[in-house]
Amino acid sequence: GAGVSQTPSNKVTEKGKYVELRCDPISGHTALYWYRQSLGQGPEFLIYFQGTGAADDSGLPNDRFFAVRPEGSVSTLKIQRTERGDSAVYLCASSQWASGSFETQYFGPGTRLLVL
Amino acid sequence: KQEVTQIPAALSVPEGENLVLNCSFTDSAIYNLQWFRQDPGKGLTSLLLIQSSQREQTSGRLNASLDKSSGRSTLYIAASQPGDSATYLCAVSGFYGGSQGNLIFGKGTKLSVKP
Questions:
Q1: Which of A22, A42, A78, B68 has its CA 20 to 30 A from that of A13?
Q2: Which site among A6, A7, A23, A56 would you substitute to test the B interface, given the most B Cβ atoms closer than 10 Å to its Cβ?
Q3: CB B56 within 8 A of CB B20
Q4: Pairing mode, if any, of strands B30-38 and B10-14?
Q5: Interface touch A104/B46, C-beta < 8 Å
Q6: Chain B residue at shortest CA distance from A88
Q7: In this structure, are residues B7 and B109 in contact, taking their beta carbons and an 8 Å threshold?
Q8: With an 8 Å Cβ cutoff, are B32 and A101 in contact?
């Protein structure tokens, strides 16, 4: 079946602009995660959704970052007043929640954000 | 605070060699540990997931072990091939920041298998 998809694959924007990054999880996966990966580093957790609600947003770096998942499927990560330091690859992952345990997280290809 | 360390940072081996990648974590209270592969400019591909109650998992030429009490995992790759060249990432999930399931990643081991 279809995997996790993310759009756009690349985004170039200017400092101070607003951007939206979209994630389509695997159908039926209730858990959705956003991570950010800088060059040479492992991904860092941003926010986790269980269904429609954000179960943990402790990884969001500041209030310029916000994410929604209004119908429990597609999620959008929104960044206001972008800064050059926001440049990174933004990864989305989804997983099943089964019998009280977290299952394998499946990752999308990522959105490469460059803030000039 | 959970920290994940991967050694070595980079590894170059000739084709056909068996090799071991190492991962250590500071907090043994984990739910599971996952090994991922990342090709340049691509997303992550899940290789193996080991639940905290398990000791190892195998898939083809890959074998991952978990020693939760000592905070260590190894990924063993048998008979390496040039197509195995990629960055291998280790990640653990546990109860952090008030919720469960978030993965904490190491920085990865960049593997190069020479023909």
A1: A42
A2: A56
A3: no
A4: unpaired
A5: yes
A6: B41
A7: yes
A8: yes
Report chain B residues whose CB lies below 8 A from the CB of A95: 101
pLDDT, tens digit (0-9, with 9 covering 90-100), for B1-19 = 889 999 999 999 999 999 9
Q: Rounded to whole angstroms, how far apart are CA atoms A92 and A49?
A: 11
Q: What is the pLDDT of residues B66-96, one digit of tens each?
A: 999 999 999 999 999 999 999 999 999 876 6
Are A33 and B44 within 8 A, CB to CB?
A: no
Size of chain B, expressed as the number of residues it contains? 115
Q: Which two tokens stand for residue A87?
A: 């440049």
CB contact under 8 A, B107 and A42: yes
From the CA of A41, how many Å to the nearest CA of chain B? 5
Identify the residue whose tokens are 């000592």: B70
Of A31, A59, A106, the CB nearest to B101: A31
Cα separation, A20 vs A14, in Å, equals 14
CB proximity list for B26: less than 8 A, separation 6 or greater = B1, B2, B3, B4, B71
DSSP per-residue letters across B36-49: EEE-TTS-EEEEEE
